[in-house]
Amino acid sequence: MQPAGHRVTWDEFRAAFRAHYLPPSLIELKQREFRALRQGDMSVLEYVQAFIRLSQYSPEDVNTDPRRATHLLDGFDPTLLTHLGRSYDGFNELVDVAIDMEHRLRRGP
Q1: 109: Cβ–Cβ under 8 A, 6 or more apart, which residues?
Q2: Where is the Retrotransposon gag domain positioned along the sequence (predicted)?
Q3: Predicted TM-score (pTM) of this structure
Q4: 32-57 pLDDT, tens per residue?
Q5: Closest listed residue to residue 99, CA positions, set 58, 55, 42
Q6: Longest Cα pair distance anywhere in the chain, in angstroms?
Q7: Alpha carbon of 102 to those of 45, 51, 67, 98: distances in Å?
Q8: What are the C-alpha distances in Å from 26 to residues 19, 38, 43, 62?
Q9: What is the residue extent of each domain of the chain?
Q10: 109 pLDDT above the threshold of 90
């Protein structure tokens, strides 16, 4: 219980919520799922959506924008990866470039 007048921060709320509603075994399972996530047959958009959804279970893996971008990049389909390069200003730019490149590759020359 918090002292009177204490304002609960988002981090405190999230930690209390997780502790009450998410068993550690589920969090561990989702962390493994996140760390093993690869694009495979998903579109870039589907992969990014899965990445964002699962990343909430492993915040230490994506606690900076460069780490987030690197982790996403590492899971891209190898064919797409050969066309992307590795230097981006951040996660959002990487997503934009990947979506554009996927569209170009599907469209053909």
Answers
A1: none
A2: 8-76
A3: 0.83
A4: 999 999 999 999 999 999 999 999 99
A5: 42
A6: 66
A7: 10, 17, 22, 6
A8: 11, 20, 26, 19
A9: 10-107
A10: no
